Amino acid sequence: MLMRSLRAAAIAASKAVFPHFCVACGDEGTVLCDDCDLDVGSLGSGIFGCPGCGERTVAGRVCRRSACRQKSVLDSLACALPYAEPVPRALLQLYKYERVEEAGEAVASTFGRFLQWNDADFCSLAKGAVVVPVPMHPWKEAWRGFNQADMLAAVFSVSTGARMVKNVLRRRFGLTAQAAIKDHDARGRNADGSIGVIRRFTPGMRFVLVDDVFTTGATMNACADALKRAGAGGVHAVTFLRG
């Protein structure tokens, strides 16, 4: 209780010295004012597309093209918003790189609304499945102090009632950060074999992987590949943004 109070006081003092400005309109007060929050909420009901080619499909399932089934290990992909949208992207970056908790709360709120808008689809997807946040490199998480995928996975878990389990997957050491690699094929090579399963589970178990951004799909596919090699059934992906 004392630590929580001290933390709240520290945040209040920080906002007094470094006031927040709305990332959309620039008004002082919060990182996302009420009017702009409504605008973000009206951007759409989500992106449900084949994880291989991006073509819109029912519930984001992988399409029937053989190339997509060979390219993607994921069974489906759903994302709240496009990475090209500047406001949600700015909020995520403030949270990840500048540790602005208010921005993280805005991201969680927006992601939660996306899940609520598609409640029937996600509750069906989550039934009998385990929710797993995509792991960060251990050194990177230690430096940042948190994994943003943990927060989003917790929101998904609360929204759908599915069980969230951490420490199912682990990134191997010696991996270059995906964000630092621009070439699509190079990202795939960098992520190949980069994920290991460190927790036993019942063969045939279904998983929902949750992360902040889906770009080339290299990391998500590495996670899905590791899980399926260990005996998993369906592996589905849900993210906040899609690049």
Describe this structure in words.
The protein has 243 residues and is an alpha/beta fold. Helix content is 44%, strand content 16%. The chain has helices spanning 2-17, 34-41, 66-71, 86-98, 101-117, 119-126, 138-144, 148-160, 184-191, 218-229; strands at 47-48, 76-82, 129-133, 163-164, 169-171, 195-197, 206-214, 235-242. The chain has a six-stranded mixed β-sheet. A two-stranded antiparallel ribbon has the order 5-6.
Radius of gyration in whole Å, from Cα? 18 Å
What are the low-pLDDT stretches, counting only 5+ consecutive residues below 50?
6-13
Structural class: alpha/beta
The run of helices and strands is HHEHEHHHEHHEEHEEHE
Gap from first CA to last CA: 40 Å
Give the second-level CATH assignment, the architecture: 3-Layer(aba) Sandwich
The total count of helices amounts to 10
- How many domains make up the coordinates? 1
Global outline: globular
* Biggest beta sheet attributes: 6 strands, mixed
CATH top-level class:
Alpha Beta
Number of strands: 8
Percent strand equals 15-25%
Mean pLDDT: 86
**CATH level 3 topology:** Rossmann fold
Task: Order the strands across the largest sheet as they lie in space.
Answer: 1-2-8-7-3-4
Estimated helix fraction: 40-55%
